[in-house]
Write a structure and sequence with these properties.
Shape: globular
Largest sheet: 9 strands, mixed
Oligomer: single chain
Radius of gyration: 27 Å
CATH architecture of the largest domain: 3-Layer(aba) Sandwich
Number of helices: 24
Helix content: 40-55%
Number of domains: 3
CATH topology of the largest domain: Rossmann fold
CATH class of the largest domain: Alpha Beta
């Protein structure tokens, strides 16, 4: 008998102690406390709290048992006024009673899907920033060599982590190395939608110049600055990394203020095709971006707002005719097939590359296979499928499931896998690769619900020498595997094949015995490779024209 069990035996009446012990193996204390911080803070024993009052309040004892659903389906349990988990342990399990509604993960995601403007209500107002617009103007005006690039994004790349932010930071550094200044404009109040504000005087940017914060500034102030710089002969280009939270009308006016400037539009996702940037119908299933009048849009939470969303973006494209930049062929092919937006040219600009070491690394020997999920635990990134693996195999001694990512980033509170804190940001970009290698992760599941446009995660997995498990419709993920180390992963057709792979075990074990290769991820290309080349050509043309005039 454990010390805790002995203590509870002394504290509780016999009948209550028996019930407390009975549900012990099925009660997940860490999960219960994570989902119910009031219980954790109260100091009361979590299992006892559930036995006495938690079930009456609709609280769940673990990830696989829904107290309210069990009572809803079983009138006899309600009539007996017995704790639902206790009934399941003593009787319901033997009778094969269902503990959670069928397809609960799917139904929960769909039920929670809300249009962007509904979710925007819950986005907090950002704290006011010091007004340093005069200092910003002075610093830009004092820069006498090189041009200015104006970049639009959905958030402050220096304060947030992700693929877009990583690329933006690399881009700013490369422009600075070439003598250009980098002016990044993000919404002062980030939103999950296009900004409803369309007037220059009322739209507020958070401003960052060459990595230093200067915000806020209204769009009219930025416009006045750019017009003056352009009239003084300053070379200016525009980059649109993302429009979420931005005002397309404001962006168009600013871009059109500079004659002969080039605008570049990045396809980091599919926000130009729908307000759901992953193209997930009701946040669940990839929809292939049907026509705006499609019946499919009528049954989607984002369908009603999509028409206005597309019209505003179409007007922006008509005004500025940007060149399209895609981080891989996958998003470019989808975009060209599903979009009729007016644009200049379209290019694939590979934003990173994996340099693979020649010497192979032998796989780990002994113990259960370490199967990991990395990054943000969202359905779009494949967390729902990883949870389905946990449902089936978390008690299987052949496997040890691990999640690597930012601490406190698990809304599910799922404690059937170990959690290792990893934060890969601009100051430690190889953090995930190193964590995978240091923890000797055998395989990583990358099972996105949408076609990934680049996937730094796939590069991190292979660089660490881990085995990659993905599916054929994962966008650029299979292409990354095929391009670098084809034998260091497997591309499956569907979830059933994934479950079969884990159920049998022999094939997976054989795949994981293959020698691996490790490597390093290097920045490859960004907008500088397009815009600076263009300006070099323009400079040469001007010099050639001047010489012809001088010699005439």
């Amino acid at each position: 008998m454990s010390d805790k069990s002995g203590l509870m035996k002394n504290l509780l009446e016999d009948h209550e102690y028996i019930r407390w012990v009975a549900i012990g193996d099925d009660f997940d204390e860490a999960y219960y406390c994570a989902k119910n911080p009031d219980v954790a803070q109260s100091g009361i024993d979590a299992r006892l709290h559930y036995l006495r009052t938690g079930w009456l309040e609709g609280r769940n004892p673990n990830t696989w048992f829904d107290s309210a659903y069990y009572l809803l389906r079983n009138a006899d349990v309600v009539a007996a006024q017995v704790n639902p988990l206790l009934h399941y342990v003593w009787q319901g399990r033997l009778e094969g009673r269902i503990t959670k509604r069928p397809h609960d993960a799917v139904r929960t995601i769909i039920e929670r899907a809300r249009p962007s403007h509904h979710r925007a209500v819950h986005f907090p107002q950002t704290a006011p920033l010091p007004d340093e617009i005069d200092y910003l103007i002075a610093r830009i005006s004092e820069h006498k060599t090189g041009g200015l690039v104006v970049s639009f994004g959905h958030d402050d790349y220096a304060e947030n982590i992700g693929g877009v932010q990583r690329l933006t930071g690399e881009e700013a550094t490369d422009y600075a190395a070439s003598g250009w200044q980098y002016l990044h404009l993000s919404p002062a109040r980030p939103l999950p939608m296009l900004s409803p504000e369309r007037e220059l005087d009322h739209y507020i940017f958070s401003v960052r110049l060459d990595g230093d914060i200067f915000g806020p500034a209204n769009a009219a102030q930025i416009l006045t600055l750019l017009i003056e710089l352009s009239q003084n002969g300053r070379a200016i280009d525009f980059i649109i990394h993302h429009l979420m939270g931005q005002s397309p009308e404001v962006v168009a006016t600013i871009c059109n203020s500079v004659a002969d400037a080039e605008a570049y539009f990045w396809l980091h996702d599919f926000y130009a095709l729908c307000s759901n940037h992953n193209l997930l119908r009701n946040d669940w299933k990839y929809c292939h971006a049907p026509g705006r009048d499609s019946t499919a849009c009528r049954i989607c939470a984002y369908g009603r707002e999509r028409s206005d969303h597309l019209e505003r973006i179409a007007h922006l494209f008509e005004q500025i005719r940007p060149s399209i930049l895609a981080p891989s062929q996958t998003p470019l092919s989808i975009w060209l097939d599903r979009s009729s937006l007016d644009h200049n040219r379209a290019y694939v600009v590979s934003i990173g590359k994996l340099v693979v070491a020649e010497d192979p690394v032998l796989p780990r020997v002994g113990g259960p296979l370490r199967i990991a999920f990395i990054g943000h635990d969202s359905h779009a990134k494949g967390w729902t499928t990883f949870q389905a693996l946990l449902d089936r195999f978390s008690g299987d001694a052949r496997y040890d499931f691990i999640r690597l990512g930012v601490e406190g980033d698990t809304p599910s509170g799922d404690n059937r896998c170990r959690h290792i804190h990893v934060r890969a940001d601009r100051d430690d970009r190889d953090a995930m690769t190193l964590a995978l290698a240091e923890n000797e992760i055998d395989a990583v599941l990358l099972w996105p619900a949408w076609p990934e446009t680049f996937s730094y995660a796939a590069h991190e997995v292979l660089a660490a020498g881990s085995f990659l498990i993905t599916h054929a419709d994962a966008g650029n993920v299979p292409s990354v595997l095929a391009a670098y180390v084809p034998l260091q992963g497997v591309v499956l057709e569907n979830v059933d094949e994934l479950f079969e792979l884990f159920a049998a075990g022999d094939r997976l074990a054989a795949l994981l015995k293959r020698p691996r290769q490790q490597g390093v991820i290097l920045p490859h290309q960004n907008t500088t490779h397009m815009s600076l080349k263009r300006h070099a050509v323009l400079r040469d043309q001007r010099q050639s024209a001047w010489m012809e005039t001088a010699l005439a």
